[in-house]
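step: validate -> pass
step: tokenize input -> pass
step: predict -> running
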Amino acid sequence: MEELLSLRGEAPEFQLRADSCACSHFDWSRGDSVPYTPEERAGFADELTEKTERIFELGQSVSKAFVEIGYLLLEINNKNLIRFVCIKSQTFLDMGDYGFKVFGFQKSTTYNLMNIVKKFGDGEGGLSFAYKDYSYTQLVYLLPFTGYELKMFTPVATVAEIKELRAGLKKYPLHEWRSSDFGKKITWRSELERVRKAAAEEAVAEKKDKKEERKQGLLAMLSSAEASESEISLPSPQTEVADVSAEELTEVASDSPGEKLIEVRKTLGLKNKEERKKWVEGVFEDASPYLTIPELDLKIYRYVFVNGARLFRFNGVTYWDTWSTEPGREGKIAKYFITDSKCPKFDMCHARSVNQVVDWLTEHGKEI
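step: predict -> pass
step: emit ->
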């Protein structure tokens, strides 16, 4: 549309081409190509000049005259006039070439103008009654729609809404409609709502799939790290353990998941809920991560109780505030997980929050 609004100038001087004797045009009434006679060809340069001058004239008020411009271009195209003329020996390859060299139109603009009058014109120089209130830009974006799809639109549909629906229908096609449905239930608004809802549901499903995929990846990494440790024999304790019971000896994580250390750790002896909560919140303070995943900006810490149960803390788990069409704020959170004899698998483990860990500590207070 910007190209049309800036259209200024006058028609160039066209000359009849000397090699145009074999040119013909398509006769729609006969459905065949018909060669022009020498008498007919003699006036083509003047006819093209006249139509070109009119297009320049219409360019002064193109917002209302684009339909007539489209008809003139279509007449030039249907009569194949550009095949018979040249400008200082410079010929035109096609209508797109003519539109660009003479008016500065992009190829798409020239063909959009012609296609609008082909599809929406009344055949008498104007638009069909159903489309007379649409703008040029609206009609351009309505061009790809089929006849039965066009019936759901009204001139109040904005260009943005038409574009959105056009893109949405490529992914979520229209239902099969009966003619009786039009004007009752099926409208461009109802279809836009349908594709928006379908897109939102797919976005939620994709986020859940990604979340599950990430979870499974983390589980696999943890399982691999745990399996690697189980294959490594424990080094000799560096602490005198003769007077210490076996249940007080436990493995502790080093900076590398592939190594183990032995230390003497006595039962926690936590007496009440306040002590347990304080212990959970401070147990990993200044500790080295058990496992680090740089790609996810994730650090995993582990504490091994004397009864063999393990407490994991994930630092940096990303989450979304909302599961809507637009994602909410992305943040970071700490989550806790406990594996024990009842829940040996990480993907079936206990706890998620500090309070849930405290509840587990209360239940197993005598064992740890």
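step: describe -> The CA atoms of residues 72 and 289 lie 75 Å apart.
step: cleanup -> pass
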